[in-house]
Every structure is written in structure tokens, then in C-alpha cells.
Amino acid sequence: MTPDEIDALTFDVFGTVVDWRGGIIRDGTALGAKHGLAVDWGHFADAWRGLYQPLLGSVRDGRRPWVPLDQLHREGLLQVLAQFGIHGLDEAEIADFVRVWHRLDPWPDAVAALTRLKRRYVLATLSNGNVRLTVNMAKRAGLPWDAVLGAEVAHAYKPMPEAYLATARLLDVPPGRCLMVAAHYSDLVAACGQGFRTCYVWRRAEYGTGEKHDLPDDHGLDLVVEDFGELADRLGV
């Protein structure tokens, strides 16, 4: 793959562009201090994120109608609050904690490198995040998207094919001229299956100090980079 074979870069967001775990720990710690809660917020964040795919699966397999990710995050939060024995939060506090996903911090390299990439390429989200969530996050963090697309626009959660195909279609770019950028191998495999080019980003701190093991030695991806700065370098911008 050469840089001139690509017209658009499409990005997974949670974990790839922003630090979901650190954001939950940050807001959970503040909530815990307010209420005197003794909680391991890292474990809490992992438990909440652990419900992500099961809740998405209930929509993907047709057991329930389409709902935006904010609703699924709320359902997951209520389960994890009960799991950790956290009671007594009022509705405003629960609603605010759900919206932690709207105010996640970008990885340190993200904004500057995306700004470089934007000079040459169309940049779009291809995320399971709903539109308002992704817009709020971008405004807070200064993420320079050209378009906010993905699951809610397609009414299909990744890795359903339509999430990828609808994004390429709305950008008016053939899938083969879209580079899917993600920190999760399974996302890239699904995108590749729809004709996208692929770039894996090593977000080694996504799960705190735990090692990431989801990229096999024999992967067949177009690019593997340490961060977005290296991606911009590799694409010559």
C-alpha cells in the first residue's frame, strides 16, 4: 500500500483515539471521593467495558431493536454499580457518569497527528459511539474529524458489514481506498473483509499496565504503527 492509494482514513475511537479506561478511573475517583466509596476504579472500568460486547451483541443478533450506545452504556453501568455494591447515587449522578464516555481524553499523540493527516486525507470516525457522544468528545478534546459516521448512522454495530460499508458509501470513497485505523485486531479483520485497507495502532496502555495480545505474528495487515505520529510519518504527511 502506498499513500496515494488512500483517500480517507476511518477510525475506531474507544481505545484507538481516546483513553476510555483512564476517563472512567478519573470520574469514578471523583465520585468515590464525594461519597466516601472504597472502589478499585481500574477494576470498575474493566468490568464496565467487559459488558460492552455482550450488550452490543443483543442488538446485533436481533434480540432487541436498535438503541444508541449511550443507552447500552447506561444499562452496563447499572449492572456494574450493583456488582461493586455502589448504592445511593441519584439520577443526575448516574446520568452524568454515563456521559463520561462523552468526555474521554485523547491519547497524547492523537490531536497533533490527526491534524497532520487531515491536510491530505478525509478523516472520519467509524465507531460504535453514537453521533452526539462522538461530537461532544471531539469538541472537548479538539479532535479534527471531517465526518462523524459509524454505527448509529448505519444502524449497525461493528463488526456488522454495514457499519463499514455505509461509512465508505457516505464518504463516496470505495472501501479499497479507505484505511481503517484501530487498536483492535478483530475490528481490522472485519473491515478487511469489506475491502478496507488496514492499520493497527499499538495502544499499549489501553488496559493500564496489562499487556495487549490481540495482534498475531502473522496478521496480513497493511500497516502496524506505534502511534498516530508514526502513521502520519508512514503516510508522508
Q: Which short descriptors sum up this protein?
A:
237 residues, Rossmann fold, DNA polymerase, domain 1, 2 domains, six-stranded parallel sheet, globular
Question: Please, could you describe this protein's structure?
Answer:
The chain is an alpha/beta fold and about 240 residues long. It folds into two domains: about 150 residues, HAD superfamily/HAD-like (Rossmann fold), CATH 3.40.50; about 80 residues, Putative phosphatase, domain 2 (DNA polymerase, domain 1, Orthogonal Bundle). Helix content is about 45%, strand content about 10%. The chain is built from eleven helices and six strands. Strands 3-2-1-4-5-6 form a six-stranded parallel beta sheet, sandwiched between helices. Helix 7 links the parallel strand 2 and strand 3. Helix 2 packs across helix 4 and helix 4 crosses helix 5. The longest helix is centred in the first third of the chain and has 16 residues. It starts with 7 loop residues before the first strand and ends with a helix. About 35% of the residues are buried. The model has no long low-confidence stretch (mean pLDDT about 95).
